[in-house]
Design brief:
- This protein has two helices and nine strands; from the N terminus they run H-E-E-E-E-E-E-E-E-E-H.
- By secondary structure, it is mainly beta.
- The chain has a single domain, classed as Immunoglobulins (Immunoglobulin-like, Sandwich).
- Strand 8 and strand 9 form a beta hairpin.
- It is elongated and about 65 Å long.
Length: 170
């Protein structure tokens, strides 16, 4: 029993290190804005802008050269009237330049803006096929890689299960 507990603790400690491999620590904070009043009589829609603020910290004892961050934002798109298992994952790809960092220095970059839609049928309305009366787009993950020229120097993904579900495509 004690051996299982030690193995579990070691596994829990190792997971965050996947996002911090090498000399860089990477975090992504979600920024949302633009929620307005619902528009429409039968199908009500609300749009919201999502942007990821990426913080990159140079944990090495030496300066880092200018880098390039390439990322994929995974967005689950739903449609009104469709069954729940028919969700579509959209991959929004982008890249940003990262300036040279001194030892211990950090910087922030922004991902591309992602438009999230929230739709619902007005009260009293439904679909004959039993499809969903609510459709909410959501960001389900972010995968980022840092490159020094053609050499990958760091990788971040949240959740860490993205690698098992998708392939890196840039």
């Amino acid at each position: 029993m004690r051996m299982k507990r030690v193995a579990l603790v070691l596994a829990m400690v190792a997971i965050p290190m996947l996002a911090q491999a090498g000399n860089f620590e990477i975090t992504v904070e979600r920024k949302k804005e633009g929620v307005g009043a619902p528009k429409g009589a039968v199908e009500q829609k609300i749009s919201q802008k999502w942007t990821g603020e990426v913080k990159i910290v140079n944990r090495a004892f030496k300066p880092a050269p200018p880098l390039e961050a390439k990322y994929i934002v995974f967005v689950k798109r739903q449609q009104l009237g469709q069954k729940q298992n028919s969700d579509h994952i959209e991959k929004i790809k982008g890249a940003a330049k990262v300036s040279a960092l001194k030892a211990g220095e950090n910087t922030k970059i922004l991902t591309s803006d992602v438009e999230l839609h929230h739709q619902r049928l007005a009260a009293g309305w439904s679909y004959a096929n039993g499809g969903s009366a609510i459709a909410d787009d959501t960001v389900v993950g972010v995968w980022l890689r840092l490159f020094d020229g053609t050499t990958q120097v760091a990788e971040y993904m949240n959740p860490t299960s993205l690698m098992a579900k998708y392939k890196w495509e840039q």
